[in-house]
Amino acid sequence: MFKQWERAPAQTQIDKQAFIEALKFNADGLIPAIAQQHDSGEVLMMAWMNLASISETLATGQVCYWSRSRQTYWRKGESSGHRQQLVALRADCDGDTLLLLVDQQGPACHTNRRNCFFFEAQADAVTVLNDVDSGLV
Amino acid sequence: MFKQWERAPAQTQIDKQAFIEALKFNADGLIPAIAQQHDSGEVLMMAWMNLASISETLATGQVCYWSRSRQTYWRKGESSGHRQQLVALRADCDGDTLLLLVDQQGPACHTNRRNCFFFEAQADAVTVLNDVDSGLV
């Protein structure tokens, strides 16, 4: 379906349920989801969703992932309070990646940094960009 | 190693080769890489890299992915001219996702839209956000 949909002009409407079911999940039934702070553009984290967690996220407006390590639903912020409120859910051209525009409460990373991407490769070393807990305000 | 590295304070330096080899590649030897336009913050696409394509990207400053469909190196823009110049390569807290800050020449998407995330799920439908070729200027 994506080969057909990708040619559609702007403002074309596609049935939502058909679209979600046509997404390309991997052998474990999962699809990667990038979370981006909607206003600043900061890329916060990447995690995985399944069909049910996508549906729940769209229904509730609170982002719900699938935890591969715990093999269960991961309602972001349920224990930490660092919730992600959904602003928009987008999918890419071939339907194998999601982009979640969110409003992140507090830090997105489990180290309490604001985002998870704090290792930066440079000419001869990798540098840690910021401190544990630096996302707590 | 990442459980140890994630506690390190800002400005800590880690050996680059050891870091890259400690990244968590999947069963196919691949790791997802998000490409973001370095100045605007626009998320352009997501693709996959292996150890050799990461090393090549760092050495040349031109982004090289691994194409899962073609099972070969994919030097972004080699045929289209729509290259990605690397500005910074980052990894996340647990070393299983990369974030590439890039300078994208022209459109990133094969449909010649500027980015690949042009399907947006809304209340009762999915909307196409922009037209084929809209990223050509």
From TrEMBL, chains A, B:
<dbReference type="GO" id="GO:0005737">
    <property type="term" value="C:cytoplasm"/>
</dbReference>
<protein>
    <recommendedName>
        <fullName>Phosphoribosyl-AMP cyclohydrolase</fullName>
        <ecNumber>3.5.4.19</ecNumber>
    </recommendedName>
</protein>
<dbReference type="GO" id="GO:0000287">
    <property type="term" value="F:magnesium ion binding"/>
</dbReference>
<feature type="binding site">
    <location>
        <position position="96"/>
    </location>
    <ligand>
        <name>Mg(2+)</name>
    </ligand>
</feature>
<dbReference type="InterPro" id="IPR002496">
    <property type="entry name" value="PRib_AMP_CycHydrolase_dom"/>
</dbReference>
<comment type="pathway">
    <text>Amino-acid biosynthesis; L-histidine biosynthesis; L-histidine from 5-phospho-alpha-D-ribose 1-diphosphate: step 3/9.</text>
</comment>
<dbReference type="GO" id="GO:0000105">
    <property type="term" value="P:L-histidine biosynthetic process"/>
</dbReference>
<dbReference type="GO" id="GO:0004635">
    <property type="term" value="F:phosphoribosyl-AMP cyclohydrolase activity"/>
</dbReference>
<comment type="pathway">
    <text>Amino-acid biosynthesis; L-histidine biosynthesis; L-histidine from 5-phospho-alpha-D-ribose 1-diphosphate: step 2/9.</text>
</comment>
<comment type="function">
    <text>Catalyzes the hydrolysis of the adenine ring of phosphoribosyl-AMP.</text>
</comment>
<feature type="binding site">
    <location>
        <position position="93"/>
    </location>
    <ligand>
        <name>Zn(2+)</name>
    </ligand>
</feature>
<keyword id="KW-0368">Histidine biosynthesis</keyword>
<keyword id="KW-0862">Zinc</keyword>
<keyword id="KW-0028">Amino-acid biosynthesis</keyword>
<keyword id="KW-0479">Metal-binding</keyword>
<comment type="similarity">
    <text>In the N-terminal section; belongs to the PRA-CH family.</text>
</comment>
<dbReference type="InterPro" id="IPR026660">
    <property type="entry name" value="PRA-CH"/>
</dbReference>
<feature type="binding site">
    <location>
        <position position="116"/>
    </location>
    <ligand>
        <name>Zn(2+)</name>
    </ligand>
</feature>
<dbReference type="GO" id="GO:0004636">
    <property type="term" value="F:phosphoribosyl-ATP diphosphatase activity"/>
</dbReference>
<comment type="subunit">
    <text>Homodimer.</text>
</comment>
<comment type="similarity">
    <text>Belongs to the PRA-CH family.</text>
</comment>
<feature type="binding site">
    <location>
        <position position="109"/>
    </location>
    <ligand>
        <name>Zn(2+)</name>
    </ligand>
</feature>
<dbReference type="GO" id="GO:0008270">
    <property type="term" value="F:zinc ion binding"/>
</dbReference>
<feature type="domain" description="Phosphoribosyl-AMP cyclohydrolase">
    <location>
        <begin position="45"/>
        <end position="118"/>
    </location>
</feature>
<keyword id="KW-0378">Hydrolase</keyword>
<dbReference type="Pfam" id="PF01502">
    <property type="entry name" value="PRA-CH"/>
</dbReference>
<dbReference type="InterPro" id="IPR038019">
    <property type="entry name" value="PRib_AMP_CycHydrolase_sf"/>
</dbReference>
<keyword id="KW-0963">Cytoplasm</keyword>
<keyword id="KW-0460">Magnesium</keyword>
<feature type="binding site">
    <location>
        <position position="94"/>
    </location>
    <ligand>
        <name>Mg(2+)</name>
    </ligand>
</feature>
<feature type="binding site">
    <location>
        <position position="92"/>
    </location>
    <ligand>
        <name>Mg(2+)</name>
    </ligand>
</feature>
